[in-house]
Design goal:
By secondary structure, the protein is an alpha/beta fold. Helices cover 27% and strands 34% of the residues. It is built from 7 helices and 14 strands. Helix 5 links the parallel strand 9 and strand 10. The relative contact order is 0.12.
Length: 277
């Protein structure tokens, strides 16, 4: 997947960067990286439009000086990146996520992930929190959906935690292929991987648990489709957004009939748990 990156220099930095991220989050930008001079914002090329920065009011404000440059970024080969500087990930001394070239551990859940071009190594705060959600909530005998599965790391852990049926969906072809490989690599025969988006969901209450670690805009746009296929009493876990996005996510979820139950935070990233009444 190809991305368009905008690298912003912001002065004054702290307040300006916070406002800029909030405004860009209303557009199609799906990830941000704070830098020494401001922030870098990333949007899928397929979602980019020439007027994407229109109506970003802070860019017109005389209280801030903001400059930027734009560049196109091709897929990152995560295999190469991992081999350069990857260390195994330890989540609460219970779950270890490692690459194939690392030695097997004695952890209760020892997961081997080879990410290729996919997002979801466990290093990112959102994936880490979603792993913790799976570890601290019941998956035994559950029918689980991993929406926007990336490497299928969450689907794999749900399977290891006793889920009987796990469906994993991602729109990116690299993720689709990589998820199948990782499921096989971890001997998870009950994981079914599909290439596509929320339009694949049939709108029937067939899942007991839904895991959706995507981004704010996609969650808000597709939440009704997720909830339509969540069984009564089922749990849905969201991540992929910042603390300032919580009110929008919670408002949408509650309007669609979900009840808030739990919030995790890590470095301004958030994971929320809701239950369907």
């Amino acid at each position: 997947m190809v991305y368009i990156a905008y690298h912003f220099n912001v002065d004054p930095k702290e307040v300006g960067t916070e406002i800029l991220i909030a405004e860009l989050g209303e557009k199609a930008f799906e990830s941000f990286e704070e830098t020494a001079t401001g922030v870098s914002a990333y949007v899928q090329k397929s979602l980019w439009t020439p007027d994407i920065l229109e109506n970003i009011f802070i860019l017109q404000s005389d209280q801030f000086t903001i400059t930027y440059r734009k560049e196109e970024i091709a897929q990152v080969n995560w295999n190469e990146e991992w081999e350069k500087n990857f260390d195994p990930i330890d989540v609460d001394d219970v779950c270890y996520v490692r690459a194939p070239f690392h030695a097997k551990t004695e952890a209760e859940f020892d997961i081997v992930i080879e990410p290729k071009m996919s997002f979801g190594t466990g290093h990112h705060e959102t994936t880490f929190m979603m792993i913790r959600q799976i570890l601290t909530n019941d998956m035994q005998g559950k029918r689980v959906l991993d929406m926007g599965c990336g490497t299928a790391i969450l689907a794999i852990l749900a399977s290891m935690r006793g889920a009987t049926q796990v469906d994993a969906i991602d729109i990116d072809n690299w993720c689709y292929i990589n998820s199948m490989e990782n499921a096989q690599r971890n001997n998870c025969e009950n994981i079914n991987v599909f290439e596509g988006d929320a339009s694949l969901l049939k709108g029937e209450p067939i899942y007991d648990v839904i895991l959706a670690n995507i981004n704010r805009n996609i969650l808000l746009n597709d939440m009704d489709k997720y909830i339509a296929c969540l069984a009564k009493g089922g749990a849905i876990y969201f991540s992929g957004f910042y603390t300032e996005d919580v009110s929008a996510i919670q408002k949408c979820a509650e309007e669609l009939g979900l009840s808030f139950e739990k919030q995790l935070e890590k470095n301004n990233w958030v994971s929320l748990k809701f239950v369907k009444a």
